[in-house]
Amino acid sequence: MSDVPDWTFLSNHSHVLLCIAQEPGIRLRDVAERVGITERAVQRIVADLEAGGYLSRVRTGRRNVYEVHADRPLRHPVEAHRQVAALLDLVLGRSGA
Length: 97
Description:
The chain is about 40% helix and about 10% strand.
């Protein structure tokens, strides 16, 4: 039996958002590797985050550069009184936007 739990406190959506906030020009392939999910799953999550107004992307040459909208509220009713910036500050030590 491993001492490492098989669950985490944050969702894959938050993991993807944190990776992008930390490195706005990151490739989705690299996000997938860091989060431990498929690239296709990352693409779906990024689409969700864009549709929700949490991310926007700008094409720069052959790459996408993402902008996190840290002023948006967190989605679950338990933390909806906080903005994304609070999560970024907590995990990354800065607002990341």
